[in-house]
What we know:
Elements: H1 4-8, E1 15-17, H2 18-32, H3 38-52, E2 59-61, H4 62-71, H5 73-81
Antiparallel strand pairs: 1-2
Helix pairs in contact: 2-3, 4-5
Amino acid sequence: MVGFDPVSSQNYSNSIETDELSCMFWTLFGVTGVRVTGTQMEMLVTDVMQTLDVDGNGEIDLEEFVGGSLRTKFIYDLLCSA
């Protein structure tokens, strides 16, 4: 789990929650110059949570993140572009 908590989880909970995911995307988009509206961000975060949160507990753990990132082209491409 080294690298997952410090980079992704602001509260070191071994998982990523909705607000943390939103913060990650705002930061990533800001660095890459991608502009999105608040509504677009909300839709993106909702879609990503529904895709990656396999057990439905409202959090993305390391296994869900890695597995989902590898099988979801959009997320994989987004991570590779960072």
